[in-house]
Predict the 3D structure of the following.
Amino acid sequence: MKRTPILSVLSATVLAAVFGAAQAAPVTYTIDPTHTFVTFEAKHFGTSTNRGRFDKKSGSVTLDKEAKTGKADITIEMGSINSGTTAFDGHLKGKDFFNAEAHPKATFVGDQFKFDGDKVTEVAGKLTLLGKTQPVTLKASNFNCYQNPMLKREVCGGDFETTVKRSEYGMTYGLPGIPDDIKLVIQVEAVKQ
């Protein structure tokens, strides 16, 4: 009879340890702006491809690899657009396209993550651009986590892409000569906090 309380305490301790191990805590990563780029591609009257990127972005990603869940919260400063041509940048920042003065930021909030093992394969959420919010699904490739030798911290990242219809955000200038479908490519790395 004296062993029953000891066995109960031991069983409870083992169960608590197993239960605690099964519930790994979510980990938050902060976007590394020097290894994160948001770029777009648009055909120009069915010939060449215009490309540009946004140089200022910030945000965080929270991953729970055990639960296979996550959340991404990314902000892009529209005035930081860089096509490599000053005059074109000015047009893109204006009312015909991104209207950066009235809508200085775009945001992506992703809360539906798909995994293959420990690798993220897809992130679905909502993109807000020009004051309008639409669902977007980003397909992932090259997702990986590694121990950064300089930062001495874990870094996770990959390449993500999707295609959006710019008219859904009210950006109709130049249609149909400049296509409605715009490819977004997001190269991202984020540092464990």
In short: The longest helix spans residues 3-22. Residues 6-22 have pLDDT under 50 and may be disordered.
